[in-house]
Design a protein that fits this description.
With 418 residues, the chain is of the alpha/beta class. The chain contains 15 helices and 15 strands. A hairpin with a 2-residue loop joins strand 11 and strand 12. Helix 5 runs parallel beside helix 12. The relative contact order is 0.15.
């Protein structure tokens, strides 16, 4: 047995003994019995040197690709000055990032609190909505995903994740995504906020009607509820706009960001709000704090990430590549209607809904074998997600389409044998 094989076996054994044996078993079943070793751009290499086109992008983290040199440089430069904040003196990188977030977010969103992850951004947003409105009710949507900490899980609309941890926070109700009539029936004068993804990610890349978000905004305005848009997955160029709400001309009261904000280098998140919503945090600035939130390394990465998105024209690139990708996938859907029920999405946030839930694992395994990393969505295993780095080249898209075509042939054969 070679040294690399020994290392792989040792790592898998450590997963089984110290992380989660069920996870190790699932990875093996999916053909993932190797170790990720290095990555650059759109390519991940395993310990054996095999290359994979990253079409999952860390569920939206690697919008700039892996190890973008400008983000790496910014973090290395900050490391030589001060990696973490004293939390006593003024922190310039955090101030610069907050200013930048006010600039790039829509409308009059101005004040930001910097955190370490998307679920923390949601937690902070829920607290902010409560303290500003003095109300305790929240309305979310079924099949939504807002995180798995206690507050964010209360908003998440997937019972499989919620049920083991009941009772969750009181006051949360869920209505079908895209159903404005259902929403209008439950939002009232006691509702602190409606929390919503502009496009549902883990729910299966569900794109609402163009009239939906504007109508949600109108309901919130009439009742005094805040509109809280979770852009952890859709934000920062993924859909072809800096933020997905821009497709619909809507300005939320609070917006959350994370994932791509760290440029694929550092974990970071944020929630940004209109000035009037920040009133209680101005009166009592230590109502919400975070030891590591807004640390200089993460803020340096985020500032560089936004600069790269702008300088490299990644919004336009995501729109154009997404249009090309969707066109090719739609052709495959016509060729394999027994396997693919629908292709949908915006920009490079694309979902492939399959006709049967069980074939997602087969397709994923076949794609991985051919050197393409994809996965299905957490809340809807029938939907395969395509979320590559925004820098993906057309030649790589063509390779992915070719690999997927081969996987669909096997999936079709399997369905015929059932």
């Amino acid at each position: 047995m070679s040294n690399k094989e020994q290392m792989i076996n040792q790592t898998i054994n450590k997963y089984e003994q110290y992380i989660n044996p069920a996870m190790a078993k699932l990875f093996r079943f999916m053909g993932l019995s190797t170790i990720e070793w290095e990555a650059e751009g759109t390519i991940i290499k395993d310990i054996g040197g095999k290359e994979y086109i990253d079409c999952l992008g860390g569920y939206g983290v690697f919008s700039l690709g892996h190890r973008h040199p400008k983000v790496v440089e910014a973090v290395k430069r900050q490391l030589d000055f001060m990696p973490l904040s004293s939390k006593v003196l003024f922190d310039k990188p955090m101030a610069d990032l907050a200013e930048l977030l006010a600039e790039i977010t829509p409308g009059d969103l101005q004040y930001s609190f910097i955190v370490n992850s998307g679920t923390e951004a949601v937690e902070g947003s829920l607290k902010l909505a409560r303290v500003h409105t003095g109300r305790s009710k929240f309305v979310a949507t079924t099949n939504s995903f807002h995180g798995k900490t206690l507050g964010s899980l209360s908003a998440t609309g997937r019972e499989m994740f919620r049920e083991p941890f009941q009772p969750l926070l009181a006051g949360f109700s869920h209505v079908p995504f895209g159903d404005i009539d259902a929403l209008a029936q439950v939002v009232d004068k006691e509702t602190a906020a409606v929390i919503i993804e502009p496009i549902q990610g883990e729910g299966g890349i569900i794109v609402p009607p163009d009239t939906y978000l504007p109508a949600v905004r109108e309901i919130c305005d009439k009742t005094g509820a805040l509109l809280l848009c979770d852009e952890v997955q859709t934000g920062l160029g993924r859909t072809g706009k800096m933020f997905a709400v821009e497709h619909y001309g809507v300005v939320p009261d609070i917006i959350t960001t994370a994932k791509a904000l760290g440029g694929g280098i550092m974990p970071i998140g944020a929630f940004t709000a209109r000035p009037k919503v920040w009133d209680k945090y101005i009166t009592s600035p230590f109502l919400h704090t975070s030891t590591f939130g807004g640390n200089p390394l993460a803020c340096a990465a985020a500032i560089a990430a936004v600069s790269v998105i702008r300088e490299e024209g990644l919004l336009k690139r995501a729109e154009q590549s997404g249009h090309y990708f969707m066109g090719k996938l739609t052709e495959l859907a016509k060729t394999y209607p027994e396997v693919i029920a629908q292709v949908r999405g915006k920009g490079l946030m694309i979902g492939i809904e399959l006709t049967k839930e069980g074939i997602g694992g087969l397709i994923m395994s076949e794609m991985i074998d051919k050197g393409v990393l994809i996965a299905y969505t957490l809340n809807n295993p029938k939907v395969m997600r395509i979320e590559p780095p925004l820098i993906i080249e057309q030649e790589q898209i063509d390779y992915v389409i070719s690999a997927l075509s081969s996987a669909l042939v096997k999936a079709q054969d399997m369905l015929e044998d059932l």
